[in-house]
Design a protein that fits this description.
The chain is an alpha/beta fold and about 375 residues long. The chain is about 30% helix and about 25% strand. Helix 11 runs parallel beside helix 12. Bound molecules: zinc ion.
C-alpha cells in the first residue's frame, strides 16, 4: 500500500492557531491540488481530534473528479477512515453524516467503548495496538491500495516515527502563527524524509510553497505521488488539444529539476506532438534534459507520417532517463513501439495503465 501524507502549515510550522475558528492556510490553487490527490486515492485517514475540532466532511464533490474515478474503475467516493483510541466520536459529525453509502471506518482500540449510534454509521475495526503499521495492515485487508493521511499532528507523528510515509506533500503558507500552544507539524524544519527522500520537488502554488517528497521507491510499475500529480497534469493538459481526425489529443509534462514544462498536441503548430511542444519549452528555457523525466498521456510515437523524427527518437536524443505514460498508442494510424524502443535504449519506462481509460475517453473521437 502507498501512504501519502499531506499537510498545510504556516511558515513557522503550525497547522492551526489557538482561536476557535480553523485557521485557513490553503489558497484556492492548493485546495484544487489537494482535492485532485484525494481523488486519486482509495481512502483518506485523519485522527479523531481533527474530526472533532474541524468537523470535515472529507467528500469528493467535484463531478469531474468523481467521473474520472468511475472511468478508472474506482468507486466515485473515497473511503473515510478515522483513528480514535477511545472510540468516543459523535455519530452526528459531518464525517459520518455526509455521504450516504460512502464507506466510513473507525479504527479504535480493543478496550474502547463504542456506542450503538456510531456502530450504525461506520464499520468499527479494533486493534490491540494502534500503530501506523497495524493500520496499514487492516486497510490493506479492506482493499485499500493508496491512503491519504491528512492529520492531525498526533497521527502524522505516528506515521513519521514508524517510517510509514511513502510520499509527503507539504504546503507552506506565507503567514506565521508564533504561538507555542498551537498545534505544530511534528519535526517541522527537521522532517525525517527531507534528507532521506529519493525524489523531491518544490514549487510555488498560488501564494504557497509546496514541497513534495518521495520517500520510498514504489513497487514495480508503481507511481510516487509526484508522478501521479504530473501524469494527472499531462492528462489534463491533453484536453486543451482540439479533437481532429488526424491526431490523438495528448498532453505532456517534462520535469527537469524543479521546473516543469507542459505541452499538448498541435499547441503551436499543426504537425507538432505534445512531447515536442513541452521539450521545445524546456530547451528554450535552457533546462538540463539529461536525466529528466517525461510524463505523457499516451505512449511516445515511434513512427509518424507528418515528420521524419519520432518523439521516441527525440526523447533519446535529449537524454531523458525516465518516461511515464498512461495509455499505449492505439493502432489507428501506425503501429507504435515507442515504449519498447525506449526500454531497450536504457530508459526507465513506466506504463500507468490505471489511467488509460481517461486517455481513451479524451480520444473518443478516434477510438470510439
Ligand atoms: Zn509523437
Amino acid at each position: 500500500m502507498r501512504v501519502i501524507a499531506s499537510a498545510a502549515v504556516s511558515s513557522d510550522g503550525y497547522m492551526d492557531d489557538c482561536t476557535p475558528q480553523r485557521l485557513v492556510l490553503s489558497c484556492a490553487e492548493d485546495w484544487a491540488e489537494v482535492h485532485a490527490i484525494r481523488a486519486s486515492c482509495d481512502a483518506i485517514l485523519v485522527g479523531a481530534e481533527t474530526v472533532r475540532r474541524d468537523n470535515p466532511a472529507l467528500m469528493i464533490r467535484d463531478e469531474e473528479l468523481r467521473c474520472h474515478r468511475k472511468l478508472c474503475g474506482m468507486s466515485p467516493d473515497i473511503v473515510k477512515v478515522v483513528v480514535s483510541g477511545s472510540g468516543r466520536l459523535d455519530a452526528g459529525l459531518r464525517f459520518f453524516t455526509e455521504g450516504e453509502g460512502v464507506r466510513k471506518i473507525v479504527i479504535t482500540s480493543e478496550q474502547a467503548v463504542v456506542d450503538d449510534a456510531l456502530r450504525r454509521v461506520a464499520q468499527v475495526i479494533r486493534l490491540s495496538h494502534i500503530t501506523a503499521c497495524s493500520i496499514i495492515d487492516v486497510l490493506e485487508d479492506e482493499g485499500v491500495e493508496t491512503v491519504l493521511v491528512e492529520g492531525g499532528a498526533k497521527i502524522m507523528k505516528m506515521f513519521f516515527d514508524e517510517d510509514a510515509v511513502d510520499d509527503m506533500r507539504l504546503a507552506v503558507a506565507p503567514i506565521t502563527v508564533g504561538d507555542d500552544a498551537a498545534p505544530r507539524l511534528p519535526y517541522y524544519g527537521e522532517l525525517p524524509f527531507e534528507w532521506r527522500c529519493f525524489d523531491r520537488c518544490c514549487r510555488q502554488v498560488g501564494n504557497m510553497t509546496v514541497c513534495e517528497y518521495a520517500v520510498h521507491v514504489p513497487s514495480e510499475g508503481g507511481l510516487t505521488a509526484i508522478d501521479m500529480r504530473r501524469l494527472g497534469r499531462a492528462i489534463d493538459v491533453s484536453r486543451q488539444s482540439p479533437p481532429c481526425a488526424t491526431a490523438y489529443r495528448v498532453g505532456c509534462v517534462v520535469a527537469a529539476g524543479d521546473r516543469e514544462y507542459e505541452g499538448y498536441t498541435h499547441e503551436t503548430g499543426p504537425a507538432n506532438h505534445a512531447e515536442e511542444e513541452a521539450l521545445a519549452k524546456a530547451l528554450d528555457d535552457g533546462a538540463e534534459l539529461r536525466g529528466a523525466t517525461v510524463y505523457t498521456s499516451m505512449e511516445p510515437c515511434s513512427k509518424r507520417s507528418s515528420k521524419p523524427v519520432s518523439c521516441t527518437e527525440l526523447l533519446l536524443r535529449c537524454g531523458v532517463s525516465r518516461v511515464v505514460y498512461a495509455c499505449a498508442e492505439p493502432d489507428c494510424f501506425v503501429q507504435c513501439d515507442g515504449g519498447n524502443i525506449l526500454r531497450r535504449s536504457g530508459v526507465e519506462v513506466v506504463s500507468a495503465v490505471k489511467y488509460a481509460p481517461l486517455v481513451r475517453d479524451i480520444n473518443a473521437h478516434l477510438t470510439a
